[in-house]
Amino acid sequence: MRVSYLGTSESAAFIAANSVRIPLYSESMKPSDLGKQPEDKSVDLNALCIPNPTTTFFVRAQGEPMEREDIQTGDVLVVDRSLTARHGDIVIAFEHGKMAVMTLQLKPDVLLRPKNKAYAATVAPVVEDEASSLEVFGVVTSVVRQLERG
Fold it and tell me: What single string gives the DSSP state of each residue in 76-140?
């Protein structure tokens, strides 16, 4: 799955100054509770999706290799460069100069593996230098999707 770069998040100070808390309702709420402020329950989407603003960026997914991870074309992926990629993480990798979304496999061999069986795994010499044809660039931490209506 290829991605296109959308940009970086704002600074931590900017995000904190422009924070908006959204009411968070539980599944057990009654229809009459809609519109009422829930008891001290709200969520700040910035805090939820962007714990490290200075190292976070966004990409838009294009293609189908991650369909088993439920990442679809058009999804916005939140990517954090400060995280060390671990076995099983979904990562953004530069492969021959193009960004791709894959799952990092560290055992028994290092591979970058798409979740769609129609695509082959890439043997990964995961070293971060210019001579490498592959570089793990960041860890996907969230997926944002707009749902199509009726």
Answer: EEEEETTSPP-TT-EEEEEETTEEEEEEEE-SSS-EEE-SSTTS--EE-----STT-SEEEEEEE
Average pLDDT over residues 84-94: 90
Q: Which of 67, 100, 121, 82 is nearest to 91 (CA)?
A: 100
**DSSP code, position 43:** E
Residue 144: how many CB atoms within 10 A of its CB? 12
73: three-class secondary structure by DSSP: coil
Is 91 a residue whose pLDDT tops 80? yes
* Residue 28 tokens, joined: 């057990």
Query: Which residues, including other chains, have CB under 8 Å from residue 55's CB and lie 6 or more apart?
Result: 80, 81, 82, 138
Q: Name the pTM for this structure.
A: 0.72
Residue 139's nearest CA partner among 86, 96, 95, 97 is 86
Host H or E run for residue 59: strand 56-62
Higher pLDDT pick, 98 / 4? 98
